Amino acid sequence: MASMNFESDSGLKEFYIPTYILKSGSEAETLPAIPSCPVLVFVNSKSGGQLGGDLLLTYRSLLNEHQVFDLGKESPDGVLRGLYVNIETLKLNGDEFAPKIEERLRIIVAGGDGTAGWLLGVVSDLKLSQPPPIATVPLGTGNNLPFAFGWGKKNPGTDRSSVLSFLDKVRKAKEMMIDSWHILMRMKASTQNPCDPIAPLELPHSLHAFQRVSSNDEHNVEGYHTFHGGFWNYFSMGMDAQVSYAFHSERKLHPEKFKNQLVNQSTYAKLGCTQGWFFASLVHPSSRNIAQLAKVKIMKKHGEWEDLHIPHSIRSIVCLNLPSFSGGLNPWGTPCKNKRRDRDLTPPYVDDGLIEVVGFRDAWHGLVLLAPNGHGTRLAQAHRIRFEFHKGAAEHTFMRIDGEPWKQPLPVDDDTVVVEISHLRQVKMLATHDCRSKSVYDPSTPTTPHGHENDEADSDEESTGEEWRKFGAADTFKIPDEVLQMCQSVNGKVKG
Fold first, then answer.
1. What are the backbone dihedrals phi and psi of residue 340, each rounded to the nearest 5 degrees, phi first?
2. I need a labelling partner for 101 at 20 to 30 A (CA). Which of 45, 167, 384, 389 fits?
3. Mean pLDDT by 10-residue block, N- to C-terminus, for the chain (496 residues)?
4. Where is the DAGKc domain (predicted)?
């Protein structure tokens, strides 16, 4: 609907955005009041079986249909780019509603963790002066991102009452900054296949949207392909990613069998058995354990790399940003006072510039997370971590970013595949007031992390090229120069 009957839907006016704000050239509307919580809604209609499509219809029936988008038909970068270009134009023309809506705007994204990460990456890349905070609707299988911020991990109801309840929670939600993490992958170009070393569709959203780095990038190496990407929750490697890859491969082949969250989770567990994850000590070659696959280095202090010892029994390694993994489990836990003192460990804060590195021997080891105070093998906390793979142990391994896995080729000649993870910047999330994610700046936090470096992200950004600082290299992620110049002109007039 292009307009709303505020008398019959008085509560919905707080979330409504008029069409002329959303679409350039539309006829201006007169609102009785500025909405307190204007929202843009992005729904992955393919997530959650039929739920995604049903949710899309419900939101469109309650709000302006032009503020609700199907990610299967419209990309978020194009939508946001067009919106902010239009808002800047309206502000220049003296519109009183546009700046207020920009200031109060919130985003709702419904989909799996990969979909949520996609939206977060787009907002991060746009580098808006007032970036909107994001709420995530759990519409996937794992739903780790929504669970970490209090939005639950079960697929939501799609009826009118459920959607109204969620909108009310969004209106009452608090803003929370979280760290984002950059990934650099560098591998030798194949002499047999001069094209991409990995099929583009094999890569997750956070990688496959990006081009190979240009020759003037200081991180580029002649004869190698270099990819950039990023994540918000976790990067994992080893047997857990192998099970995830089997699940996603099966779902691609038979999408009709994966329309129910409980069925999906049951299938995932069965694949864990068939892939040998529960009996890894018997069926998994020791040559594929993490210590045999890669040399691992970490950076605790800026500019100082050190080797990280990985026990030889570890078959899966997780680099974790949020306290939610594998359906809401917390692999790091909360270190006791002795561990904090003796090993310089801290609780898993989401905005401290540190990533938690945890190892697992097998699926049974992972089940200890279900017990009170259960956790994996705590390996380290760091600002950066680097994996160096050399010829020998295996032809490939499996990797996963925020729920999206891929099969990663390993060296066959005397060369090295490098995967490096580093702190990038922060983005705004929306969280319920009782969420499990904790901020180091929260006054209620019992202790603050030892050795926290507030300037780590800034120093990284200043020392690297533009491709490194973006989640994507595509021009569509960039606001046009003429709009930026227009914004600068307006800001100059305001300051004057």
1. -65, -40
2. 45
3. 47 92 83 88 85 93 95 90 93 91 96 86 86 92 87 88 95 94 78 49 58 56 73 86 76 67 63 57 66 89 89 88 79 72 80 92 58 74 91 80 83 80 91 91 58 39 46 41 45 44
4. 34-187
